[in-house]
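Researcher: We plan to redesign the surface later, but first we want a full-length starting point. Tokens attached.
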């Protein structure tokens, strides 16, 4: 499997940019993260996400949603709500969330054939 960015979609759509610094506490984080991936992927308006962490520990996840209703469904999911509460209590030193509308989107993939 090759690494690829999330494809370009026909705008407008939404992006949620979650930037964070983690605590050293990993207790339950991998399992919760896996479950959050399952839940968000079941959302019909979820378009995909990209995530990276710098060597210094800054993490950035950008998730894309077709519309406000699909983003609201993700935000209001009860398991996601519990995970957010646990994140504030145990896993994050700090975070910011920025939500914006994508107005322009295009991409490129090299043809190796």
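Model: Full-length starting sequence:
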């Amino acid at each position: 499997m090759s690494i690829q960015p999330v494809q370009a979609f026909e705008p407008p759509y939404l992006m949620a940019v979650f930037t964070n610094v983690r605590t050293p506490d990993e207790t339950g984080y991998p399992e919760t993260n896996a479950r959050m991936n399952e839940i968000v992927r079941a959302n019909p308006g979820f378009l995909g996400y990209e995530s990276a962490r710098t060597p210094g520990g800054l993490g950035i996840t950008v998730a894309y949603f077709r519309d406000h209703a699909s983003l609201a469904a993700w935000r209001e999911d009860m398991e996601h709500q519990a995970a957010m509460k646990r994140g504030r209590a145990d896993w994050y030193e700090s975070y910011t969330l920025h939500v914006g509308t994508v107005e322009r989107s295009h991409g490129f993939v090299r043809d190796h054939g």
